[in-house]
Write a structure and sequence with these properties.
Layout lengths: L1 E3 L21 H4 L24 H9 L5 H6 L2 H7 L4 H15 L2 E3 H11 L2 E2 L4 H6 L4 E2 L3 E6 L5 H15 L3 E6 L3 H13 L4 H5 L2 E5 L3 H16 L6 E7 L1 H5 L9 H19 L2 E7 L20 E6 L9 E8 L8 E7 L2 E2 L1
Parallel strand pairs: 5-9, 5-10, 6-7, 6-8, 8-9
Antiparallel strand pairs: 1-2, 3-4, 10-11, 11-12, 12-13
């Protein structure tokens, strides 16, 4: 099997074939350096001038193949047997088709590429690092949800300072609360004894107070990331995402569409630039906490952590982080941490 580098990718090139065929052919793999596979396109004489002829197009049409995707997914042996194309000619036609339709990569190569570029970022809270098998993972989106004052913002601020100071990487912070969070960020950096000039030179702050400002800022962030060397920015934090999305939940005309667009945009940003994305959400039930924004939103984040007070709290600073969604850990697995003047610990 093989996969493409676009979300609109089609299925495998050849059912039942191995990676040694068209997907892993160097001529095909390197056939395009830009763009993703945009899907169907009709086969014409211009697809591969000099090789594709009217006769061959008619032979392909007789097989029901009139578009590029059909040519790429058909069995090679059947194509050679039913048309005037020899194996080398077929390879040239496929390579030419891919030059106009995007780059196809073998799933094995795609996995290896992800492994090379994805890293684990320390959260700044040792118990959370254990819960998350090391910390925030690049290429993934984690959502913290809980009641007000449960510690969500404290985790976000602690993580921003940890990545900026320890990983020496840039952090993008989209602030929806106003100056209070920035004041807390400066306060915690001073208490940790960090060089605030150096640390804050690595934290790029944006402000968004509604969903349309959020889209504008995410576009600006994407454009900025595209000009940076890979790995320069490692973490994007939005606190609180629910504050600007909750007003549109239930909108009769476009609320659901806007939610899904935000979700797709964040996932694409994480995947395209190997970023860890951290957002916060409200909790809608104080007794049995569950995240706000509805069931449809639940498919967005890769990881969800419920942040709450312990049931038998012996200290006002103690908090619990519990897995609500993860591909690495069972749900309801939890750890405790504390909220101190210097942040989450």
């Amino acid at each position: 099997m093989m996969a493409t580098d676009s979300s609109s990718a089609e299925a495998a090139l050849m059912p039942g074939s191995t990676c040694g065929d068209a997907a892993c052919d160097p001529a095909l793999r390197n056939s395009s350096a830009t763009g993703g596979w945009r899907g169907a396109g009709r086969l014409t004489l211009h697809t591969c001038p000099g090789t594709l002829t009217e006769q061959i197009l008619s032979e392909l049409a007789a097989m029901g193949i009139t578009e590029v995707t059909g040519l790429l997914t058909a069995d090679q042996a059947k194509l050679v047997a039913a048309t005037s194309l020899d194996p080398q000619g077929l390879r040239r036609v496929r390579a030419a088709a891919l030059r106009t339709r995007g780059r196809v990569v073998c799933a094995r190569d795609l996995l290896a590429s992800k492994a090379r570029h994805n890293i684990i970022l320390k959260t700044g809270v040792s118990s959370l690092d254990v819960l998350l098998h090391g910390g925030w993972r690049s290429g993934e989106w984690c959502e913290l949800f809980g009641l007000s004052n449960s510690g969500k913002t404290q985790i976000c601020v602690t993580s921003m300072l940890s990545v900026a100071a320890c990983n020496r990487a840039k952090v993008v912070f989209i602030n929806t609360h106003g100056p209070a969070t920035m004041h807390r960020l400066h306060q915690m950096a001073a208490m940790k004894g960090q060089d605030r000039v150096t640390v804050f030179s690595r934290i790029d702050t944006f402000v968004a107070f509604n969903v349309f400002q959020l889209f504008s800022q995410l576009l600006a962030i994407r454009q900025r990331l595209a000009t940076q060397p890979p790995g320069t920015t490692r973490l994007v934090v939005i606190d609180s995402l629910a504050a600007i999305l909750s007003p549109i939940v239930g909108a009769k005309t476009h609320g659901h569409a806007l939610l899904q667009r935000v979700s797709r945009t964040l996932k694409a940003l994480a995947d395209d630039f190997s970023l860890a994305i951290l957002t916060t959400n409200f909790s809608v039930n104080p007794v049995t906490p569950r995240p706000a924004l509805g069931v449809a939103w639940s498919s967005g984040p890769n990881v969800r952590l419920a942040v709450r007070y312990p049931q038998d709290a012996s200290s006002s600073t103690e908090r619990v982080a519990e897995i609500a969604k993860s591909s690495l850990s069972p749900v309801h697995l939890c750890v405790t941490f504390a909220i101190e003047a210097s942040g989450a610990t």
